[in-house]
Specification:
The complex is a heterodimer of chains A (111) and B (116). Chain A is mainly beta. Chain A contains no helices and eleven strands. Chain A starts with a strand and ends with a strand. Classes of the chains: A mainly beta (111), B mainly beta (116).
């Protein structure tokens, strides 16, 4: 079953704008990770945030985690056409079912 | 370092057949996980191997099996294929050790399986 649920399902913005996508999950977690997938190819790891962290940055990416609300957000600043992809959050809840992925947000950057 | 490689990249089979997919992890990675991705169900965890032992298994029928070799390469097998097995099968390796939590996972390009 899906643990994470991304919101929105799809997002279309102009190049240069910021993109924000959200992820909600149901159970306690050890960490939450964000991945990017280009058009049905393999996933690329973007960032990992541990349950005791609240915010993390990596280049143009900013991730926040609110364990009290069981939610996370991914902000991509100054978007580029190459950012067009699907973005997934994945949680590790310490159980025996590997990483649990949401259904993803499909991001389209209009040139 | 070479990335995770998966072979074959594309595969077409008919119902009732069986299939074996192969995954070579990044050198030094001992943990290999397999995921199935479909438009309807999204990404779902199949199983994870560490040091030739299956450590975790997702909620899939026994037709789905796997193994890991001493060099950390892994194979997954699906027997008696069904139409619903059509999917992108992704393999991921990580530096995860004997103790959780998961570290970042490095994914291969996937094998696109079509069952006719």
């Amino acid at each position: 079953s899906q643990q994470g649920e991304e919101d929105p399902q799809a997002l279309s913005i102009q190049e240069g704008e910021n993109a924000t996508m959200n992820c909600s999950y149901k159970t306690s977690i050890n960490n939450l990770q964000w991945y990017r997938q280009n058009s049905g190819r393999g996933l690329v790891h973007l960032i990992l945030i541990r349950s005791n962290e609240r915010e993390k940055h990596s280049g143009r990416l900013r991730v926040t985690l609110d364990t009290s609300k069981k939610s996370s957000s991914l902000l991509i600043t100054a978007s580029r056409a190459a950012d067009t992809a699907s973005y997934f959050c994945a949680t590790d809840d310490g159980g025996a079912d590997g990483l649990t992925f949401g259904k993803g947000t499909h991001l389209i950057i209009q040139p | 370092k070479a990335g995770v490689t998966q072979t074959p990249r594309y595969l077409i089979k008919t119902r009732g057949q069986q299939v074996t997919l192969s995954c070579s992890p990044i050198s030094g990675h001992r943990s290999v996980s397999w995921y199935q991705q479909t438009p309807g169900q999204g990404l779902q965890f199949l199983f994870e191997y560490f040091s030739e032992t299956q450590r975790n298994k997702g909620n899939f029928p026994g037709r789905f099996s796997g193994r890991q070799f001493s060099n950390s390469r892994s194979e997954m097998n699906v027997s008696t294929l069904e139409l619903g097995d059509s999917a992108l099968y992704l393999c991921a390796s990580s530096l995860k050790g004997l103790v959780r939590p998961y570290n970042e996972q490095f994914f291969g390009p996937g094998t696109r399986l079509t069952v006719l």
